[in-house]
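Retro notes, item 3 of 5
We never archived the inputs for the calcium ion complex last cycle. Fixing that now. Sequence and ligand:
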Amino acid sequence: MKYWISGMQLAGVDRHTSTKRKRVDPTTRFTRLRFVLVCLICTLFSSQGSAERAAAKPPLDGTSRSPNIVLFLVDDMGLMDTSVPMLTDEDGKSKHHPLNDWYRTPNMERLAARGVRFSNFYSHSVCSPTRVSIMSGQNSARHRCTDYIFPWKNNRLIDTRQYPLAVCQQVPPKWNWAGLTQSDLTLPSLLKQVGYKTIHVGKGHFAPFEHTGTDPQNLGFDVNIAGSSIGAPGSYYAKNGFGKGSKNVHARPVPGLDKYHGTDTFLTEAITLEAKAEVDRALASEKPFFLYMSHYAVHSPFNSDPRFAANYRDKGTPPGAQAYATLIEGMDKSLGDLMDHVEAKGVAENTLFIFLGDNGGDCPLAGTDDISSSAPLRGRKGSKWEGGVRVPFIAAWAKPDPENKEQKKLPIPAGSIRQEIGVCYDLFPTIAKLVEAPVPTDHPVDGQNLSQLFSGQSDQKHRNEFLNHYPHPRRGQSHFFTTWRNGNWKVRYEYFAEGDDRYALYDLARDPSESNNLAAEQPVKLRSMMQQMVQELESSDAVYPVKDGQTLEPLIPQEKRS
Ligand SMILES: [Ca+2]
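Structure as it came back at the time:
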């Protein structure tokens, strides 16, 4: 389908010299018991300060409280699944592609016009790794939750036609299936320490059932609406009880929304109504709020949202792609409703929206390794290609006001776009810094504070790097791989490939669709990139696949003799 294929080029990204980060010794890898003790001590010594800080807050007047934060996370939304152009031309200006004409996201356009976009923003390639990274500030190689969490048994024990047991047993034995637990340091637990009301609405997927992390209230959230271990809704339709009675092992009933059952309320709308009510409660309590608005949309099942179906009919696209577009537009309406709500409540100037997807897009088109659903990028959700990991990203104050006290601390130029690399685990240090929440020194953080980039200034210390470690089986051509991006370059290593086939090297400035593997042509660059990747993995204390009882660590190619 030619419509979905674009030959347009991704503009170049300034390549920065990599400055190695100062890391906490990996042997001090986050210990949960220690964190509990730190929390207890912090609570004892900070409760008085927090109380004073809360008491010092003036009554709600919309202009002089700590910033409210809406972290608006969309499941399975790629960077091309929007009418907002996220890619740039050679001059760094945003550039339209055909997919931008297909999708309708007027409220994302409104948000983007008020703030900053990133053309090179990454999440991990599937759900749970990104969610744990947002909560922890750590790369998936470090927290070891490297795959989606199958909620009922360890992914190593799955035995299906797609994922046979013999293949799943090659997954690292010590990968973190358990995800987050009650004693882990999380972003909302940090925010609570400085007086925030922390609200979870929508999809959790932080941990399996019968583990503490199944309930977001055990992870630092004061409130949980509709979140549990499930990674997909049984149904988006309230008429179907949002999947009540579903036997699908991947898509189960959404909990906690019984009052909507039997009505015409679409799931996206139901959780938006709930979120607005929780915002009202937080404002009444005179606490600043952190709303983690985690949409089930646009994850499968691709149920058409009847409110928007007419916008996509008769366009010559498959029904699944039409339904996917309605899920996108419904999510966009939710964004607009929340923006309008904080404005109606008089707190828009003090409310920062951070919008992103949790992995690459998953529009059901063509093959997972083609240039189609994320064109001009290759691949889709879960894949080793850019389409598996590039996501939309916008940060904006809901109502720009240069005179607002909070906005003076973090001014964001309207309608701006950055080409530096941002990553989902950057949000933890960025938000912690914004609200002046101290991070315990024994908690390693891989992310970087993005606030200088948000403010429209280049940051010489910023590292344009991203590590995606995926020692798991997956659909299409993507199995047991690690990718490392530094500047314009991307290297990929595949653990079960043979000889030189293990390696792929791409110059994304010249070849955004990853069509020209330069591994054989540029052995020096390949070796350098592999050395960096291995260093990153080792410093994160990463775990690796196993074969016949042997651990498969990545191999750096030998130096070629001329
Ligand atoms: Ca996802």
